[in-house]
Amino acid sequence: MIRVTSFLWGFVAAITLLVWSVTAFAQSNVMSVQLGYKVSLGHVDVATTSADWIFGEDTFELSATSRTVGLTDMLRKYRGQIDLSGRVENGRYLPQSLSIAGVSKRRTRQALTMWAPDTGPVTTKREPDLDLEKVFPLSDKHIDGAVDPFSAMLNALNSIAQSGSCTGSERVYDGLRTSELALHDLGTKLLEKDRPFAFEGKTSVCGFVSKPTGGHQRKSRWRKKQPKPEDVLIFVAEVRPDLFLPVRIEAKSFIGTVTARLVMPSLVLEMR
Predict the structure, then answer these.
(1) 270 within 8 A of 247, measured Cβ to Cβ
(2) Strand locations in the chain, DSSP E?
(3) How far apart are CA 100 and CA 103, in angstroms?
(4) Exposure pattern of 132-161 as b/e (b: 16+ CB <10 Å)?
(5) How far apart are CA 236 and CA 82, in angstroms?
(6) Inter-residue contact 163 to 144 (CB < 8 Å)
(7) Bridge partners (DSSP) listed for residue 99
(8) Alpha helices of the chain — where are they, by DSSP H?
């Protein structure tokens, strides 16, 4: 059971870096978006996330939380908090500051990263420092020019809104890890409402591959095999005019398929 809950804790952290980031739309006013996801393993709920986005004409902000629920919360409690601010330049979402914090039974981790304008230096304060006996070191060559995972996925969803294609790649850095993310077009699918709160309708299917380049665990069953685009599927839909969201995410693992679903009643949009 420890191995299972360890994986679920890792998945909650990973899904946080995914589902909170993928909102893209064109607008010229200030708009706030509130949304939430439920994460399950089979028929068992294991985690929830909630996020508040604010999009301006050339700025964006995010405040989000995540937590384990049910039996997973008893066995491996996790709480997460993310705060992000960024700007939009030439149609691209770029970060200015990212604060991430996670608390589990075993440890607390937090990092504050600042991106200087005009491709200036990237600085990070971490607590605690990386344990290089457990994780691989970070390299400046992977940090320089990288964006945070949330801005990267905003750019990907903006591509879907503009061209209908999710194919693309980004180098990302969240203050603790660096990765190379890639999205692949896998066609379309009509989703059925498999939960009372879930989305129903046409979606674009994107295969998601993440290649870790630093800060990741030296020992991990999750990364022993070569990942394929079909291992993690993101189902993207236009839930409102010009508002594209991942309505479902499915990730294969050695303990089964973990699924994150957008809670449609949680979706609230406000114009200011």
Answers:
(1) no
(2) 31-41, 44-55, 59-68, 78-89, 92-104, 108-115, 122-127, 168-173, 178-191, 201-214, 232-240, 243-253, 256-262, 268-271
(3) 10
(4) eeebbebeeebbeebbbbbbbbbbbbbbbb
(5) 23
(6) no
(7) 83, 112
(8) 2-19, 70-75, 140-143, 149-163
- Residue 254: exposure state from Cβ atoms within 10 A (0-12, 13-18, ≥19): exposed
* CA angle, 171 then 15 then 102, to 5°: 95
Low-confidence ranges of the chain (pLDDT < 50): 1-9, 16-26
- Angstrom distance (rounded) from CA 56 to CA 31: 7
pLDDT digits (tens, 9 = 90+) for 201-212: 999 999 999 899
φ, ψ at 190 (rounded to 5°): -90, 110
Alpha-carbon distance 232 to 205, whole Å?
10
CA dihedral 224→230→235→236, nearest 10 degrees, is 90
> What are the backbone angles phi and psi of residue 267, rounded to the nearest 5°?
-75, 115
* Nearest to 78, CA basis, from 3, 175, 10: 10
Residue that the structure tokens 């997460």 belong to: 80
C-alpha to C-alpha distance for 113 and 126, rounded to whole angstroms:
9
| pTM metric for this prediction | 0.87
- Encoded tokens for 49: 């996330």
- Each residue of 217-265: pLDDT tens digit? 887 655 556 789 999 999 999 998 888 889 999 998 878 899 999 999 9
Q: Token pair for residue 81? A: 């908090």
Instruction: Report d(CA 16, CA 84) in Å as an integer.
Output: 13
